Automatic annotation (TrEMBL):
Protein name as catalogued: LysR family transcriptional regulator
UniProt keyword annotations, A-Z: DNA-binding, Transcription, Transcription regulation
Pfam families attached to this UniProt entry: HTH_1 (PF00126), LysR_substrate (PF03466)
Organism of origin: Secundilactobacillus angelensis
Origin: domain of life: Bacteria
Amino acid sequence: MNTKDLAYFKALVEKRNFTAVAKAFNVSQPTVTQAVKRLEREFEDELVHVDRAHNRTEITRSGLLLYEKASTVAASLNLAHQEIENAKLSRIRFGLPPIIGTLYFPALAGQLLKDGLLQRLDLVETGSGGLLSAVKEGEIDIALLASVLPLHDPSLNVIHIGSRPFVAVVSRRHRLANRGSVFFKELANEEFIMLNRKFVHPKAFKAYSQFAGVNPPVIYRTPDISWITSLVKENLGVSLLVRDVVSSSDESELSCLQILDPVAERFNVSIVIRQGYVLTAEEKHFIEELKQLKIPQSQ
């Protein structure tokens, strides 16, 4: 079967016009017609019915079934082209969220540099939600990302590294600063400053809110963690962050409160690879190094 025939047919289903398809591919109309006829011979059924009386191009049920499969084939071919082009460059297309990049990844940088892998990285930095989509769509091949629950997705190969708790972060001037722990319902009237929806934190915030039956106001969202901690230090609001964001140097101005509600959501760190992607020797080595990442024991 000619993949070009499938491309013509897919476009015909979408445009319902032989002339428009021919123009889009810069070929003659008979070329498109013959492509459809070849496919009909291949599948021994009518795929396209031309209603000349009403000047309509109709797609049969068999044609619609083939269209769905053709769309999948086209997506797979595009992905294969991306992967093969990248293989020629010997680069590692890697996604890393800013939080994990700041908190955990630097510990590996020295070894990666020594092994010649750090120089090979084509790094994409954004929130975990964006990186998950990028892996699935073939924009990157490997990601180290976070999820509020352990990932289970048949389209991905997932290697779980560890998990960390979320905490309520408040200024040392806040009325709850010396409590050590709180139930989330005690934060119902607090004004939250949160990471935006590219990160996993809003999902954890929603889970805690639903469990506690409260709806705390979010007054500001940003992708900048340092900006969040700066605003919280000024007692302009509170936040929900992974525990490790607050370093020992911040503890004179910030207080981390354990949240006592028994929700399952945590900051899970995983290596994610697209299912079916064939790793190079360098990528296999890189993943083995990532597996050595030290995530502190959960508290």
